[in-house]
Structure formats: structure tokens, C-alpha cells
Design goal:
GO biological process, one term (chains A, B): aromatic amino acid family biosynthetic process
Cofactor (chains A, B): Zn(2+); NAD(+); Co(2+)
Structural class of chain A: alpha/beta
GO molecular function (chains A, B): 3-dehydroquinate synthase activity; metal ion binding; nucleotide binding
Oligomer: homodimer
Keywords (chains A, B): Cobalt, Lyase, Metal-binding, NAD, Nucleotide-binding, Zinc
Number of strands of chain A: 11
EC number (chains A, B): 4.2.3.4
Order of helices and strands of chain A: EEHEHEHEHEHEEEHHHHHHHEEH
Radius of gyration of chain A: 20 Å
Amino acid sequence: MQTIALNTKSRPSTVLCGAGAAKQLDTILDGKDVFVVTDENVYGLYKDFIAENFGGAPVCVLPAGERHKNRRSLFTILDKMLQARLRRNSTLVAFGGGVVGDMGGLAASLYMRGIHAVQVPTTLLAQVDSSVGGKTAIDHRGVKNVIGTFYQPEYVVCDPLFLRTLPQRELKCGLGEIIKTGALDAKILDKLERNAERFFDFSFLEEITADCVRFKAGVVEKDECERSGLRKCLNMGHTTGHALELFYKRRSHGEYVLIGMLLESYIAEKFDICAHDYAEELRALIGKVLKRVPRFENIAEAAGLALYDKKNQGENEVSLILPAKRGEFAELRLTDEDYIGSVEEIAGGLA
Amino acid sequence: MQTIALNTKSRPSTVLCGAGAAKQLDTILDGKDVFVVTDENVYGLYKDFIAENFGGAPVCVLPAGERHKNRRSLFTILDKMLQARLRRNSTLVAFGGGVVGDMGGLAASLYMRGIHAVQVPTTLLAQVDSSVGGKTAIDHRGVKNVIGTFYQPEYVVCDPLFLRTLPQRELKCGLGEIIKTGALDAKILDKLERNAERFFDFSFLEEITADCVRFKAGVVEKDECERSGLRKCLNMGHTTGHALELFYKRRSHGEYVLIGMLLESYIAEKFDICAHDYAEELRALIGKVLKRVPRFENIAEAAGLALYDKKNQGENEVSLILPAKRGEFAELRLTDEDYIGSVEEIAGGLA
């Protein structure tokens, strides 16, 4: 198990990563007034684990799925926290995937203007990405993550133990963010290329998760609230990915990130941000996880949703974080016309 | 006009205090994408001011009053922000009293995980207290301020211009917090005692407002999120005040703070926290504003609500911030029995 410190100006956060991390919950929560947030799927699988590790704490079980990441679920949590008479020194444990983590984190940041939060991510995606860095959110009126806070959890506990109950599709989802991190950090990229046949091997996932968390912690420490521009790099593949996710809804977030990265790698080439060979290298890695690219109907309309993304500050401009060379990225701003036209052309060529 | 810096770890805030402050809005908002939150009362009085100073910006007009400081109003603001297609670099201006400031600040802190906020408090209470320091909130299920954030506004603009349209009762409300500050800071107390006949004089209010803001800024800089205990001092009179406010609802927040301070000054004496003469001195000041203490029915039940206050961490204990001597305060923790019994006895003696 590795201990990774994430020290922002707002409050310190500690990430415990690797086998045995979950065993530390005992110590972390010792003597604390605990409240658990989870969802129906996770509760079904880990009812006993919850009873043993959060002994007697009230448990708020939410309906599962991104479509429940909304105002109603947020207030379900807050109401249960009030019923449980939580105080400012109580601790909320978000035990589940990204949706549980985002909403649990938001509720913890809002209740009495902020109580302690501990994230126990149970999916690969949440372990490598969403549980670390303090972003919390709900979706609202069709806009992803438009209501939320930056609020660092006291601890994040990433144990590969929980990955064993994940369907293959969920592993792919996390691999999307792992490959994205590789496109930002040369050492992680090397490791991914050397281990391209071990992507679904738990011992490899345990190791690469810690690498990705350490990389993300470094970025978040320098730009917690996405103000300087650095943290934006973590959005590589997400502009196009989010737009397609919003429009088509069928696949998981991680798969849309992979598809976004794939399409954007061609955009990077087209606008001379990235050389052909390096783009091909990244696409080869993406191909290890994303076996085939679906055919998208009305992709121009879908891509148009990128204009509504909160990262796009201008009215008719889309900002893209693109791979430039190993370990380097660049931001490209395109007019809506250029962006939508490019996505349409590239997707057409792949179909 | 005075410029008071409030530099917390999270983000810097600047308070402009005094005649002419409102004229600075032009410069502050120059070139910004602005969104205004206000309420029906303020809008009725300042429609022209809003049109001139926030030229063309969308205005969200909320129903007036503390009973609208709730989830519904919060989402009214957030929905209008989405409709106005605000971006992360947009600026929300909260133009009104404490309720508008608390909810506008909360919406600004949540929309896209935080956009710029400017507070333009139009009541004396909001100018001396609630607009400064970054506390935002809504009430929920009968609990005051139970959902909120700590989020510093970029600017707070306190102009005595707005005080001229306030009813006398609203001035009293602000004077409650001013006298509270006097009980925490010896210099402010001296000034209040020297000017006890000028409490309703605008030039005095302008001067003392800046003093109170400077005092509060110093406290908030040292303990933004009320963790070290220092910021708790600002809650003097509030434990009892809030409980009575919740139970009786009839009077304003500032009046309940004065009543709370009055009752708690006797508690301070009873438990040997404060000498009789100093307590009498404070009560003389309170008496300049609070002409008579109302008779309270069922005060034991009302005082019992203090147990639900978010500042009280224990199950059956009430924390009180009490005056000790000039410029000094002390925290006293009482069992619910001792606290309720004392309030009942003291209020009975005053009636």
C-alpha cells in the first residue's frame, strides 16, 4: 500500500492506494461519528463489508446510476444527515463509484458548511480519477456537473479488493482515464506500452492506479480550482467525450473519454498539434481497450453540445486539450464550425 | 471610503467601505459578464440603480424574507444562471440584505463549482456582518443555515447610501451586530460608549461599519472555516438569539441577537465569567437600541432549540460565547438542563 499526500491550500488530503488500504478504515474512522452514502448496487455486493467496517453507522442507499446524480438524490442525503443529527465533526464516507463519490462529497461539503469526508471508491474509474482531487457535483437540467464544489476529502481509500466484483466494462471505463493520464505523463505512457497485454491484470491495475493518483495529486496541488489552466489538462478527451455522452447516453463515461481521445487525436494531427506517429501510438493503446468505434448518427448535433460545456468560456468556441508529444499537451481553441466539421469528417472516416 | 483586505487561504477578498463605495462598481464590473440577484423589496427601491449600474445584466428577483431562504429559491437562482448561460468567469452580484447575500453567495459558490461573487449589502446588518467573511447558506427543515459553503466574494461594497432607505427597525438590527463586535473589541466598545447618542446618525454608522468590518476580517483571516475556534467568537449572543428566533420568528435576526446578548450577559455573571459592572455596561449599550424586552411564553421550549444549533457538537450540551472583560470573551459549555434553567430564570426576572 502506498500513501500519497495531496496538499492543497484549502485542506490536506491523504490517498491510501493498494492492497490493504481498506484495512486502514478501522484506524481512520476510530472514534468518529460516521455516516455512509452508497448505492443499491454496491450495497447489494458489500452489505456485510459495510456492517463490519462502519459498525452501526447510518447508511444512505441511493438508487444507482448517473441519471440519479441530481438534486433529488442530493437532498435525500442531506435530509438523512439531518435525521442522523450529524454535527460539524462528523464524517461522511462515500462508498461506491463516481456518482456516489461526487454526490457524497457535495453533501459533505454543504452540510453545516462542510464536515469531514472519506472517499472509498469501488470502481477503477473512481479510484484512478474521480475520488481524488476534491471535485464534487450533481448534474442539473441536462448539464453535467454544473452544480458542485471543490472540497478535499480527508482520506481517499483505493483498495484493489473492490475491483474484483467489477464487470469487464467497468474496468474499461477506468482504463480510459488511465490511458488519458498516459497521454499526459511520459513515464506512465512507457509503463502502459510495456504492459499493454496486462491491462486487465489486477496486479498491474493496482500499480498503475497509484501512478495515476500520484500524477493527479501533483496537478491538483498546483491548481486546485482549475484557475491557472494546469488542471484543465486532466480534461483531455473529455470535451468531445462529454458531448457524445450527453447526446447518446448509451455507453459509460470512460468509454466516451476513450472515443473522445480517439477523435481528438485526429484533430491534433489535423491542426498540427501532434505528429502522425505519436497519434498512432496513442491510438494503438486506445485500441487495446476500445475494440471498435461505434457508428454515430447525427454526430454534428452531438458535437455541438461541446459548446455548452462549462470549460468553454467563449460563446462560439470550443477548447480542446490535445496530446502534443510524449508527456506534453496543448490547448487548441476552435470555432464551433471548425470543431463540429472536424468531428464529423473524422467520425465519418472511421465508420 | 476605506479599502479593507481580507486574505484567507482560499481566495483574496476586498471590502470597500464608506461613501463612494458604490461608485466603484463601474470599475469592478468593467468588462465582466454580470448576473444580479436581489429581492422584491430591494428591486422596488433600486430598480433604476440596478439598471444604471449593472447595465443590461440579467436580474433574478427573489421573494423577500428569511422564510424564502430555502432550497426552492436557491434553485430559482441556479436555473436562471443556466438560462443566462453564465460561464466560469462570470460574476454574480448579490444586491440586497443578508438573505440575498447568503443565497446569492451560495449559488455563486456552486455554479460550475464557483464563479466570481460580489456582495453589495443594502442593510446595515449585512454591511457590518453577513456580507463579509464568505459564509453562505440556506435554511432547511427548520434548521438555520444548515446547508452552505465558505466562499469568499471577490469584492464587498458597503455604501451608506443604501442605509437611507432602511426602516429604523433595520438599523436596530445592524446595531445588534455592532454592539456584539464592541463586546469583542475594546476599541470599538470605547467608540460605542463615547457615541451612544449617535447610534442612528449616518456618519457614525459609516465609521463604525468600517471598524466592525476590519475586526471581522481579522478574525476570518485567522479562522476562515470556523475550525480553530476563534471565529466562534462572532457567535456571541447567537446561541440564545438563534434559538429564540427559530421558535418565535416574530422579530428580526439583529433583535434576537440583542436579546440573546442580554440574556447571556446574565448567564456570564451567574457563572462567574464576567463581573457585574462590565455586564451592566454592556446592558446599558444594548438598552440604547433594545428599548424593552418582550415577554416570552414557553421560553424553556424555545431555549431547548439551542441544542440543535450546528455549533453545538455534543449531544446534551450548549456552547455559549460570553463576554469576560473588555475585549475578551470566553466559551462556556452548559448542560441542557443548566442552560435552559438559567434562561428561564433570567427571562422571568426581566419580565
